[in-house]
């Protein structure tokens, strides 16, 4: 076992979403001993159910969230440099509908968006004529003018995994399929009981501090396993998305305004698809069982059909997903207007081991959140090192000048035997870590069994060995989106192969291995 029963760690991080993984990475790099436990797979819930964007949040300006937007825009530039393989620039087109928002308001908002933070990597906003611009082709002919601005797209679940990988490489222990079932607060330590959700095996560990990064479960973890309470509260809001076959032939995304003042995105996705989202619906059920409703699917189809010349119907949906956002509780009726900012609450009662809880947040600001979490904990760990994450690449992102295009060109030259599309996918998925995936392999035959699409055995083994992948869903929907391309029989074959590999593995539970 990577963790011995009774072992003492500085931080026990509960939750393997983006905030938990980001905090674990930051803390490990500062010299703290860290153990992260996640009851399911990394990024199983909210962190893999986003709109796949690293963005400032243009619409938040309408709610006067200037500080949040500035912070997010600053992080957008940093993250693009840290992980250029999984985060890339994306231009957004907003058709102008004068009855919804006047042109002067949109121009003012985009001017602020361009200038609230230093911008070096992305072009600014401008007006466009749809009669001349490629983005006008799929739109209704009554739409003649619009605006274009910049943000970035991200492989959200991979961002979580890369943070966990970096945390591990800096000394952290990462336990997936492992639940915190009980923690007793003592004078110096928390006495915590962790249980494998696969084998039922339990271990006891001591932690000088618990970090509650459980997302939608932050409150229930406090009142349950931690036997304490908090000052802040969260509001659960469901966001759902649909995916269709590609609806347009260019590389721009759309941001559409709706009569209800909400916005919906239509984004080029995984080469052959279009991602449409999101909704904002109050949610009170189990966050692990959230699903899109027929009403949400209809709403998203109707929203984009107001703008596209060819209507989008529910029958075109090839995949859908939903997630629960744990937003800060506010006295606001409209879920869309609830802040996407975060609060950190440190409960450090005199003479008792502390707990730090994370309320709210968005994927774009996760690194800043982790840095602020460490600032809260600095008085407790005087030996902690200084800030370090702002300029350090994530695994695979350490390419010269953060230039994915140049890296891809050289990578393809060095591995000329790889099919062109596969080389491109490896480059934008694994970046410089592609060399580890292909170590000792010199031809397509060396990649091993083909499970479907372009998923070979060598990649599956890499994901099992380096990225905590255990199931077909881990591989097809979080480490990649190849689930969009494999049919049921291919998924079954992959599942059977994974089960056979696990049966041959060492008797120790995979969940308790670092």
Produce a short descriptive summary.
With 514 residues, the chain is of the alpha+beta class. The chain is 28% helix and 25% strand. It contains 13 helices and 20 strands.
How would you sum up this structure, described in words?
The structure is a single chain. The chain is an alpha+beta fold. Helices cover 28% and strands 25% of the residues. The chain has 13 helices and 20 strands. Strand 12 and strand 13 (263-269) form a beta hairpin. Helix 1 (18-29) packs parallel to helix 4 (156-169), helix 1 (18-29) packs across helix 7 and helix 8 packs across helix 9. The longest helix has 17 residues, at 66-82. It is globular and about 70 Å long. The model is unreliable at 508-514 (pLDDT under 50).
How many E-type strands? 20
Averaging pLDDT over every residue, what do you get? 94
Helix coverage percent: 25-40%
Report how far apart the termini are. Answer: 8 Å
């Amino acid at each position: 076992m990577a963790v011995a029963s009774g072992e003492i760690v500085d931080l026990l991080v509960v939750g393997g979403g983006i905030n938990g993984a980001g905090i674990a990475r930051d803390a490990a790099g500062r010299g703290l001993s860290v153990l992260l436990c996640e009851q399911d797979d990394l990024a199983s819930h909210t962190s893999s159910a986003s709109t796949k964007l690293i963005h400032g949040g243009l619409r938040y300006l309408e709610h006067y969230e200037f500080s949040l937007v500035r912070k997010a825009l600053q992080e957008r530039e940093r993250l693009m440099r840290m992980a250029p393989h999984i985060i890339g620039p994306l231009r957004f087109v907003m058709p102008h509908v004068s009855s919804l928002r006047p042109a002067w308001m949109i121009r003012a908002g985009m001017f602020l968006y361009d200038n609230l933070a230093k911008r070096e990597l992305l072009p600014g906003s401008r007006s466009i004529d749809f009669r001349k611009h490629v983005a006008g082709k799929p739109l209704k002919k009554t739409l003649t003018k619009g605006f274009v601005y910049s943000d970035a797209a991200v492989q959200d679940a991979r961002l979580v995994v890369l943070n966990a990988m970096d945390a591990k490489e800096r000394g952290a222990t990462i336990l997936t399929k492992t639940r915190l079932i009980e923690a007793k607060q003592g004078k110096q330590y928390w006495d915590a009981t962790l249980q494998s959700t696969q084998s039922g095996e339990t271990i006891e560990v001591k932690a000088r501090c618990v970090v509650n990064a459980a997302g939608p479960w932050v409150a229930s973890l406090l009142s349950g396993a931690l036997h304490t309470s908090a000052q802040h509260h969260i509001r659960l809001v469901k966001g759902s998305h649909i995916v269709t076959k590609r609806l347009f032939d260019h590389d721009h995304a759309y941001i559409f305004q709706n009569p209800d003042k909400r916005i919906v995105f239509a984004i080029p996705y995984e080469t052959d698809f279009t991602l449409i989202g999101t909704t904002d619906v109050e949610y009170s059920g189990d966050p692990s069982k959230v699903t899109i409703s027929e009403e949400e699917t209809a709403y998203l189809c109707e929203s984009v059909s107001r703008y596209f010349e060819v209507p989008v119907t529910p029958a075109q949906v090839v995949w859908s997903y939903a997630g629960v956002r744990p937003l800060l509780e506010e006295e606001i009726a409209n879920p869309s207007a609830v802040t996407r900012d975060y609060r950190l609450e440190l409960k450090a009662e005199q003479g008792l081991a502390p707990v730090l809880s994370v309320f709210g947040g968005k994927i774009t600001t996760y690194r800043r959140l982790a840095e602020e979490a460490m600032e809260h904990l600095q008085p407790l760990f005087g030996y902690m090192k200084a800030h370090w994450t702002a300029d350090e690449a994530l695994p695979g992102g350490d390419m010269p000048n953060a230039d994915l295009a140049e890296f891809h060109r050289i990578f393809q030259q060095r591995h000329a035997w790889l099919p062109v599309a596969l080389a491109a996918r490896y480059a934008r998925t694994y970046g410089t870590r592609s060399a580890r995936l292909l170590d000792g392999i010199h031809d397509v035959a060396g990649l091993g069994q083909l499970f479907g699409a372009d998923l070979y055995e060598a990649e599956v083994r890499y994901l099992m060995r380096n990225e905590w992948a255990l199931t077909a869903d881990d591989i097809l929907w979080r480490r990649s989106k190849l689930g969009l391309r494999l049919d049921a029989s291919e998924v079954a074959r992959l599942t059977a192969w994974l089960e056979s590999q696990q049966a041959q593995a060492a008797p120790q539970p995979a969940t308790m291995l670092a």
